Structures
1.
Amino acid sequence: MSRKKNSRHVMEGVQAAHDGMKALPRKKFKKPADATMDIQAIADGVRSGSRLYLGKAITLLESSSAEHKKNGQELLNQLLPFTGNSIRIGITGVPGAGKSTFIETFGEMLTGLGHRVAVLAIDPSSSLTGGSILGDKTRMEQLARNPKAFIRPSPTAGTLGGVHKKTRETMLLCEAAGYDVILVETVGVGQSETLVRGMVDMFLLLVLTGAGDELQGMKKGILELADAIIVHKADGENAQLAKKTVSEYKQMMHFLQPATDSWKTRSLAASSVEETGIPEVWKMVKEFEDTVKVSGYWKKRRQEQTKDWFRSMITDELHSRFFDHAERRQLVKTLETQVLNDELTVAQAIMQLFE
């Protein structure tokens, strides 16, 4: 058979196959399941304590998609009646204080006592460096494998406000999933401490031995946020020095305003390596909870935090909607240039922008 005839037969075969495919009945694809049903399934999965469904729920809330945002808030609304039943503990510390080691040891002890522990990590600096804080799971390998624990980083979304929103919502989802101890770790420094203080019940500050030298680089404001100061790495040669440091902090607390009404800030030593002082930290946390609940400040603080969250979200939404229009963004750039060139005052530019 010549090459020309062979080519013709091939083309005829292709055409026949094509005609045969057209003759086949079209396959009917099922429409996606109703969104409400999906949300209900995720809600049920979260309530069952499934870490898989909890992860899916958090991912839904973190999505920037308008539809996902709507579904995420519907999911959260369904789960709200099952939230608020944990103790929320913020943990910060000076560089090298061993926050991750402390959290892992503390978390392992709590799960051993029958508690379920969620660890949420905040790192505002990652929006500047582009770094990932998913490393938290590698820093806490043992706790990450614990079936009674859940570790999740909070994405910055470029702003502290973004962290604030996502961490609060993640916290609520964790509570709905049955986690009764929520540990919020601030990895960054500066404003993140105030941020975390505004979303937890109790705030722990980890420090090292030698309070006098350390305080040279520590802001007084951070000390005033703390409900307890844990002198960490109180082991080996540091054991005796740690006791002295605890006494020094206790003396300092007399000159500072307590962070929580009805509670006097405490200081104690602990070692995650030797696991000494860790049970005492939990005992103190429970004393704090009992004391503050009896005084009525527990409920008051949570209500104030929710009100602050509501108002901050109004500001975030206004900012987002304002810059949602391309024309307005361009006008901002134009006015900004005029202000920098001394063609307009800042007040005049603002007046033009809002006319």
2.
Amino acid sequence: MAGTTARRGKGASAFRCSECGWQTAKWVGRCGECQAWGSVAEVGAVTARTTAASTVERPALPIAEVDVTHAVARPTGVAEFDRVLGGGLVPGAVVLVAGEPGIGKSTLLLDVAGRAARSGEHGERRVLYVSGEESAAQVRARAERIEAMARSLYLASETDLATVLGQVEQVQPELLVVDSVQTVASAEVEGSAGNVTQVREVAASLIQVAKARGIAVLLVGHVTKDGSIAGPRVLEHLVDVVVQFEGDRHSRLRLVRAVKNRYGPTDEVGCFDLSDVGIVGLADPSGLFLSGRTAAVAGTCVTVTLEGRRPLVTEVQALVTASSLATPRRATSGLDSARVNMVLAVLDKRARAPIGSSDAYLSTVGGVRLAEPAADLAITLALAGAITDRPLPEGTVAFGEVGLAGEVRPVTGAHRRLAEAARLGFTRAVVPAGVLGAGPVPDGLSVLEVGTVAEAVGRALHEVPAR
């Protein structure tokens, strides 16, 4: 760097990355430090600047005198979406909804816009839906199909930021939906729509309008091929809520998760059914994650996970077969591959399972993704059943975290999991040791406590538990 500075002539230009601050003597299209595209720009000589104090129009108040009524969430009319947001939309909040193309983001937000327009205190709320990807006629056709028509729902097809702000000035909405932030561009900033500078400018302008006018804003965001939100990382820091739309495009099930939420929890999940007539919330989706077969099959195990306050019953399936490769194959769908590999290693070392020269395939039912460590025990028992070709007794569920020492650790919310299992008709539960002493067990449910992986495999596949 010193050599670069020495070779730079007096008055020569410098270039700096707006994302990470990396400097170079010449312009490059991609930052050499953070690898961001289009973030390197020319800067002048570094000079010290001072800002004079201005007149305060709104003096600071003691925290006890701050009015909290402006931060009360208002329901959107879509219960599953409100669950994820923490009760609804807060006036002035900016929500970024991200997901893969065609997964249902526009359909969900149009449904939210239509319901919000019909759920005002006096019968109506003004809602402005701005589409930069479709014409107003296309949006109306979808609104008719999903029954999202409302008199106070205004549509506009715009891609210019100044025109969008003019529409907001004219309509004076309480809710603004922009689909999508990558399609809107500002004439004051160089570059095409969707680049780093444009996305930052568009988001900053919409956030400023939302805070100044108390308008709730829903922004649709694209994702890259690896699943991350497209655009600068600062976009996620600027908004108040980041919502991730998940699901298999070949399945009707859609899951909505809050990755960031300044007004509520980030561990809640909303479940939706996407069909030809729109998107419908699923208040009780547990049955979607079970195979529905009537006979016990080796290599399957049902577990109960907690998504926020909601217990979900999910089935894990495993298939173990002899490998013809020098390195056995490990394939997963809906499960964390790192945790599956860990469970395979624990089975091999602690339970003496003959898994080293076999291919292993694991999947969840219904397209759901399990990331909670409580699913470790179900993965273990599914693999053990596939290796021994011995099915678990019918009506069995299992949950617990597996450690590298082969121990089965307790998990939070054990009795909520047991209550959900009993509600769905399960009669046998394999759980970590200590659950029975922490509270009552639901009627009709027999509990088998295990302390190690070897004990869990040996007793779950052979022993009938005593209540």
3.
Amino acid sequence: MRVGLDVGGTKIDAVAVSPSGEIIGRLRRPTGWGDDAVVESIVLAVRALAAENAIAMADIGSVGIGIPGLVDVESGRVLHAVNLGVESLDLAARAQAELGIPFRVENDVKAAALGAAVLRGATGSMAYLNLGTGVAAGIVIDGRIHRGSRGTAGEVGHISVDPRGRVCGCGQRGCIETLCGGGALAKAWGRSGALPVKDIIEAADAGDADAIRLRADLHHGGAAAVRVLVLSADVDTVIIGGGLTALGPRLEDGIRSALQADAETSPFMRSLHLDERIEMLPAGSPAAAFGAALVGAAVPEKEIVFHG
């Protein structure tokens, strides 16, 4: 039995995966803040998942964790996970000491890319574009995470596409994240609300000029991310996931329309058929936690196995 945990700033999404690759249990629990609380919440999530699904702890062969921040995959150390209050944490070693189960740790977006590849039956090359509070991406080629020389392959959020655009948290102007990241859009919107991006879309539908402009940024920013991923890595498919997928067709159709509009004046871009190469994960997909389970299994020859 394999367990996968998607550790976010507020919650942990945990899944139990059978040897045949079937998700047989899933739960969500709050995430702690700071080193000790993060480790404790992970340990409690594994134990709760086992208890709720009548799984003996001795039957869990591995646990994989997808977590924000910089991850040293070999050591299982997490660096600069600012949304969790973690600066440097030997996560795999500490969690393994608590439960006596092998742990592996991976960046959350890379884990999600792996999970999305399996859940969507992707073959060949695929990019996973995460549109949430921020913007990030991971690439999977022939069933393996493609990291690049320093682990940043596919990270498109901080590619500047407008040097006179809004200032990004990274210090540049006009990064893709400033256009289609939920946090940047909420800041630009500047109005109170629990779901600011949803509010922007609804206000745009009602004719609000500021909202119409920000909605266009969202769609064109997503299109720019797709374009960069295809032009730089020549992936077959870009699968879009993350919190903004809750917008459903209002996000997918908008990005597709932006890609089509951008291709109207360029025979080269038309030849790439970018609008036909995007897919959306359904909202609430377990891709990140499922991918973490696959990472935890650490299959030597290939990091994923495709299941029918």
4.
Amino acid sequence: MSRRAGMAAGVSGVVTALTLLAPATSAAVAPSPTPVLIEAYGDSTTLGITCADGHCGPQARNAVTGLQQALQAHDGERVQVMNYGVGGTMAAQLRDGTGNRRAGPTAGLPWRERLTASPARIVLINYGINEVMQNQTPAQFYAAETTLVQIARELGKEPVLQTSNPMPDKRLNAKLAEMVAMTRRVAAEQRVPLVDQYAYVSSLPDWKALMSDGAHPKPELYRLKAEQDYRVVEPLVRRLLDDTP
């Protein structure tokens, strides 16, 4: 064999070897899994306020953190839950972009603009207590929650409504029950998932002992609320995970 023919054969052999290796190399690089982001919006019971010894403040063992821990234990770390709860706020403020303060990088934007900029696949919505405390009417609350749900759906998000936990004061709790009825109505009319925390907590024996004050649960009750959230949210997460690479 001539020197030139030998060189050609050698180059051809190298090209063939690289061609054979290329598919194996490409197959070994798997695409990054698509995350499933959940955003939780609500008042101080979403934020995770607990009161003790005359002091109230957010604490780590809240319902949103508990939900993320349960989801990640079952579905992996590609599931993330962001807590955008803000104390003292109402559903109408979330809709209008007022009262959001430091709740996320898009705080202060109206709901439509905020969700347009959000990569969230699922949004949790939990209001009612401050509507009672700030003398909102059930009709106003109904209108605000309906708008929140409709916009979320228009933007391709999966909204999940949550009723508030009950309040120990009988008079305030009776008013809260009217707000809860509105949340249930919106969920039924818009056909969205509902976590009925009001009904669940009210059914617990001596549930008032699980409250740290007139509105905020103790960590033990936040844990129980997280379990109820998980029952409703996990099937939605599983469906999204099954539909994404």
